[in-house]
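Illustration: Galactoside permease.
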Amino acid sequence: MNTSKRRHYTLLSGLLFCFFYTWSSAFSLISLWLSQKVGLRGSETGLIFSATALTALCAQPLYGFIQDKLGLRKNLLWMIGGLLLISGPFFIFVFAPLLQINILLGALAGGLYVGATFFAGIGALESYTERVSRILGFEFGKARMWGSLGWAAATFCAGFLFNIDPNLNFWMASSAAVVFLLLLACLREVKTDALSQLEYGKPDSLTLADVAALLRLPRFWALIVFVSGVSVYNVYDQQFPVYFASLFSDVKNGNEMYGFLNSFQVFLEAGGMFLAPLVVNRIGAKNGLLLSGLIMALRVIGSGLAADAVTISLMKLLHAVELPILLIAMFKYITTRFDARLSATLYLVGFQFVTQVCASVLSPLAGHGYDLIGFADTYMIMGLLVLVLTLISCFLLLGEKPSTPPSLQLNQSESL
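Result:
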């Protein structure tokens, strides 16, 4: 690995570590905080997650297009870093008081901040890292692994800190954001040569018409069907800590055990990020996507069938297998079936955006289901939805030898 490649790999890995550390510190136990400290019901918590999803789905297409236009410039990452920095003060001095005054106002403010900062911000950072990894020649999965380690490092102590004072987690989030900004200042923008310009295209040449052309591609809508199924994983995770803690006689003990479980899961996930490129390169991008969908269906349905904390913990740990394969396969699929210049837009719209659209619809329904029929039955319904859409995607997604070149030019046979 040459000096430039090593430097960029190290700094981008550090950025992902700090981003996920901030995100985990501020948000991994948010459902416990809303339930136990703020006193919200499941349906009210679902409303907040829905507002977060709605904001993210508005920001993600914008972030994607901006990052594709910027190419390898860091302007958007600087803005995201500033939002990360104010995470602690926002949750303590803005979000919590607003929820006490008015649920709808608090949900709106929380949704705007969390959606724009974390759920849209991570897509921009991941797509930036993936683009640099393609140009410099290192595996995206190995850099993304450090993001998982950042999440795990934060959740390892999150349960303890939550029982002492939930605000400690929020201040830890802002502390990690300071390091994020320092690393970003050290990151030099990659200068591409003429051959790279030809291979990856000139970002400045992109127009909104190029993005709109995606909507006329059947292969784009086939991807949307698949993502609509796997998007359930976000909804499943939102209030899982509440259900997990309820399986213990002492809720505080449940909080701590969830912190350990989540930390262990993400450490395993980090190892999965290291190995996932080997798996996906061997079985192909399409099969990688389908495999991740089947594992997700097993995890969610299994959580509905689980009757004790040990069994449901094993189901939760399947996320460490499913997510790495999903992310690596997703990037490889969109960069080989579509125009590589639009990788950020495709990731943020075709994956992240659709995920948030589904979450905005399913979050309040899931919250109502938890209150009405319980967590287990709601998980069964969610798992069956994932399974059905994954099976349909077997026939819709393009195989390893797409019949049309990965460009935005429509062939007659592909016109709707």
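Reading the tokens back as a structure: Residues 194-201, 402-416 have pLDDT under 50 and may be disordered.
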